[in-house]
Design goal:
about 220 residues, alpha/beta, four-stranded parallel beta sheet, two-stranded antiparallel sheet, 4 helices, 10 strands
């Protein structure tokens, strides 16, 4: 009986030690550099210098972050005119799609692209460059999809919608040091690419897509 008790005690000590070791040496998530806009034309879009299409794979699957792709499934703009795709042809694994054009009116697109979506939006821009809610639920929706207590990684086709989204969020009170414009999927060559386009069809069922039902919202 004494031997059995001794064995049990030893086993408990070993298990406790292993648990303690596991807790003590649990790897922490890689420290994030502060957002820093790159130079040149990409800098004009607000694309980050350190975390972008080339490095985003190093920062995926973080528990302290959310990942948002700002494209529409099918954008009315002619993005093929600038070498892109008006359809969401693919995305980086882990990114969820919520279209920027549903958040506020799209401005400043290249002339070749023409006009994008012109329907209802959560916010409108005032003459002073501020944003006002079009619906009582607008801010609640924004805070749900872009939680202020998380790092926010933004991507789109070429980087424009992502930069516009960051400007909108910062204007409405988000911390600019927690938001990263990681650029455009069109230039991503990493290992986490999810192809949506299959020959001449688009398998949108692969996309984690967040639509906004404007009919269910209460106009201000």
């Amino acid at each position: 009986m004494k031997n059995i008790k001794t064995i049990i005690a030893i086993v408990c000590i070993i298990i406790g030690g292993l648990i303690g070791f596991s807790i003590a040496y649990t790897p922490t998530e890689k420290a994030l550099p502060k957002p820093e806009t790159t130079g040149g034309e990409r800098g004009m879009l607000g694309i980050d210098k350190n975390i972008n299409e080339e490095t985003i794979d190093e920062y995926l699957n973080r528990t302290d972050s959310v990942y948002r792709d700002m494209r529409m499934l099918e954008d009315p703009g002619n993005y093929a005119a600038i070498g892109g795709d008006s359809f969401l042809s693919g995305f980086v694994k882990g990114f969820e799609v919520i279209p920027y054009p549903y958040l506020t009116a799209v401005k400043g697109l290249p002339e070749e692209v023409g006009e994008s979506y012109t329907g209802r939006t959560l916010f409108k821009e005032t003459e002073e460059g501020k944003y006002e809610a079009n619906y009582q639920e607008s801010l609640e929706i924004l805070e749900y999809y872009f939680p202020k207590d998380k790092n926010i990684f933004l991507m789109c086709g070429g980087g424009g919608y992502a930069g516009m989204t960051k400007s909108l969020l910062v204007s409405l009170g988000w911390d600019e040091n927690k938001i990263y414009n990681v650029g455009g999927y069109w230039y991503y060559e990493g290992k986490n690419k999810v192809e949506v386009k299959d020959d001449d069809k688009y398998n949108f069922w692969k996309v984690t897509y967040h639509d906004i039902d404007f009919d269910s919202l209460t106009e201000v």
